[in-house]
UniProtKB/TrEMBL annotation:
Protein name as annotated: PBS lyase
PROSITE patterns named among the record's database cross-references: HEAT_REPEAT (PS50077)
Annotated SUPFAM superfamilies: ARM repeat (SSF48371)
Biological role: Catalyzes the hydroxylation of the N(6)-(4-aminobutyl)-L-lysine intermediate produced by deoxyhypusine synthase/DHPS on a critical lysine of the eukaryotic translation initiation factor 5A/eIF-5A. This is the second step of the post-translational modification of that lysine into an unusual amino acid residue named hypusine. Hypusination is unique to mature eIF-5A factor and is essential for its function.
Pfam family name, one: HEAT_2
Superkingdom, natural source: Bacteria
Amino acid sequence: MLEQRIEHTCFTPDTIQLMTDISLPLTFDPDSLDPEAAALLPRLASADAAVRRIALLALADLEDEAVLGPIVTALRSDVSSEVRAQAAEVLGAWERADAVAALCEALADRAEDVREAAAQSLSNLKDPESGPLLAPWTAHGDPFVRQAALRGLRELRYAGALEPALAALAANEYIVRLEAVSVLGWLKNEHALGPLTAAAAQDPSAAVRRAAIGALGIGAAATDDIIAALLSALGDAAWQVREEAAATLGKLRAPGARDALIAALDDDYWQVRLQAVRALGKLGDANASAISTASTAVAALLTHAISNLRKEAALSLGELGDAASLPALQVAATDPDPEVRKAARIALAQIDKAN
């Protein structure tokens, strides 16, 4: 009914004049729009917020950059938070400076739905050229704005985000520190390794410690300081941090972590055990004694109640390549779970080929 009412509305010259009245903060020239877009403009002056919101969707459907002006104006000036939120949502489809600037401003909107919509649109940015527009907002007084700006910078890999992200590691709010860690992880900058290592060991938030540990595994070299921090994290009070530490040690293929990872196979949480099992299979230590010790510990998990852990144990044994684990794998090849049986067969084939 609403769409029909819009389609059959007759716009008078006075109504159309509303769209070009100098009292409105227009940032576009209505005369520059094509006829289809221009025909939609009067709807943005409707007294009905629903009509204005649908008009924004119709403008966005045109996929014409010339309509960005009216949409930006709606985001900045419309009295309805629903309309402003819709404008923030549709602007996410264009990564242009004017759109990004308007979305940044909307992060501080008085309405939560507008702020959330703007933050979501900014999180989808991919062009590093948007970085300079976002970076100043990381110093805003509102923690939500700082968090959203950092989240927008995350995947841009904008070099200029390094200093703002490092500064944000000292924020009082953990949600800001969390996003700062993510930005630093994506940047893969050697100057961030020290602060990330410190955050992994010392941040009061388990979520931040976990994120920092994960960031250390993204393209970082396995330095002594990093390995020491990860080994220490295997004893963290939060099991999610221990889980991430085990996974990251596997990514870095740190042979010196073997004993600590074997010990982690007895962790109270099976999720930590699973990552420790995977990591042990990735270390690739040629020391026969070390491999035998690891294989024996991993083989013991082939009878664990969690089938996913049994599967990972079988796959890890295949990577370790210890012929002494063949009898245990042959039993696992008859496991009730088909995924475990499949993993056991793969491991048996790997060991047979290696030997």
